[in-house]
Amino acid sequence: MSLAEAQAEAARAARASARQELAVLVALEFTGERRRLTAAAKLARDAAAMRAEAEDAPAAGSHHGWGGDLDFQESLQEFKELARSAGARVAATVVQRRARPDPATLVGHGKLDEIAAVAASADADLVLFDHDLTPTQLRNLEERLPCRVIDRTQLILDIFARHARTREGQLQVELAQLEYQLPRLAGRGKAMSQLGGGIGTRGPGETQLETDRRKINLRIDHVKEQLEAVRRIRRQQRQRREAVPVPVVALVGYTNAGKSTLFNALTEAGVLESARMFATLDPKLKQLQLPSRRKILLSDTVGFIRNLPHTLVTSFRATLEEVERAEVLLHVRDASSPMMDEQKVQVQKVLGELEVRGKPAIEVLNKIDLLPEVERAALGSGADGVPAVAVSALTRVGLDGLLAAIDGALVADPLVEARFRLPQSEGAALAALEAGAVVGEKTFEGNLVYLAARGPASLLERYRRFRERG
Asked: Has residue 77 been placed in a domain?
């Protein structure tokens, strides 16, 4: 190794230790199968435009243009934010549009030479592809490029690994990483296809590749056993919680839509709020009292993203159990994003994988503080019969309307009204009604208390012996 090469390697190692790795981004658009908004998003946008035209008002999102090029540019910006969330510093960006992916290198040999030259001139530590790579493509790219190669899935897995704090979260990330690595062992260096060296390893036997596969499979089994133990504890905790039934309302949405900010605004929980993607990885639960005095458990969950790796959806299924068990979903959407409709479709896609798309839902159109007044007024009232509430979690605008909407969406323990006649000696019953229901008029006659209450049926039914007849 020459002195210059040694100095470059030392510089790369220093940056890596400081988590300031230089990255070259490669963004691709295949014109033969041009990435467009899905048909559902197009229909939703066209319907919004028709409504706006009928009302002589601009359609929500119309200020963004919504062209195919803008779709690509927004996706590129999202990929840059992913790179920054992983701790990389973007040194250069290479864009390629071609009819279809090259089966050997994804980008083709001419573009690969250009990427190699850019990476070498920038002294980059890694090249990030905004696309998943097959094991063959990964091997060929690593042979031709002067630094490490990371594809989109591996990048997202790295971000998840950074943000996992609980033991369960760390195990789930490790499981997803192992399942990602397993089919990509072949060709990762010459040693992978050779027999192990040393006494007792020569001659016919297990190759290094087979050894690595066996070790990863054993580790996968071990991680799954540990995860099952953690999940068993979670099930026991949930069973204890469900002994005193409290409805669960889960926040879902695209990453960086403002779910954690909304969670804090509603519960004062003080969880991490960050503009970085996937800042929330481990689920949070906090009790919240609604205007009707009913109590719910609000759950903050991991955000979704375009082309979310299936291994992550599978590995994090236990974490997303709160979504599966929720009575109502709050789909938090970034109303200021030019990709709002496409993001909605991606979230629905993941919800479909979790088999929860039929649950009652409320669309929370967040970040309206970033919109001009005319565009706030143009925000729709929801599609497909799903109610929508416009809010700003940052400035706390619209939160009262959101709480009222949650109150109205809960059907397991509906709100009812009743009149009661209680002896003043029944102080515990009176206190329970005042704490758990909205008490209207209240009068006293002798040692009796007459009151009207509106609250959950389970609570009012508990004191039915005190209800007025007729």
From this structure: yes
Instruction: Give the chain's domain count.
Output: 4
Task: Tell me the pTM.
Answer: 0.72
Residue keyed to tokens 């200021």 = 336
86 burial type by CB count under 10 A (0-12 exposed, 13-18 middle, 19+ buried) = buried
Residues 443 and 353 in one domain: no
Same domain, 208 and 142: no
Q: How far apart are CA 364 and CA 361, in angstroms?
A: 9
- Do residues 410 and 403 lie in contact, with contact meaning Cβ atoms separated by under 8 Å? no
Q: Does residue 307 sit within a domain?
A: yes
Do 393 and 256 belong together in one domain?
A: yes
The residue from 127, 150, 173 where one domain ends is 150
Q: Which domain holds residue 455?
A: 415-466
Residue in the block written with tokens 């903050």 = 300
Closest CA to 444 of 429, 460, 422: 422
Provide the residue-wise pLDDT of the chain in tens; the chain has 470 residues: 555 555 555 555 554 545 579 999 999 888 765 544 444 445 555 554 544 444 444 343 333 333 345 578 888 888 998 898 888 999 999 999 988 999 999 999 999 999 999 999 999 999 999 999 998 999 999 999 999 999 998 898 888 888 777 787 788 888 888 888 888 876 454 334 444 444 444 444 556 777 888 888 999 999 999 888 887 887 777 677 665 668 889 999 998 888 889 999 998 877 656 555 565 556 678 889 888 888 888 988 777 887 777 767 766 666 677 788 888 999 999 999 888 888 898 888 888 887 888 888 999 999 999 988 888 877 766 666 678 899 999 999 999 999 999 988 888 777 888 999 999 889 899 988 988 888 888 889 888 999 999 888 888 888 988 988 75
Task: List, in order, residues 6 or more apart from 255 with CB less than 8 Å away.
Answer: 277, 278, 302, 303, 304, 305
Query: Which residue among 150, 182, 215 closes a domain?
Result: 150
CATH code, domain carrying 34: 3.40.50
Q: Please tell me whether residues 342 and 255 are part of one structural domain.
A: yes
- 27 and 83 within one domain: yes
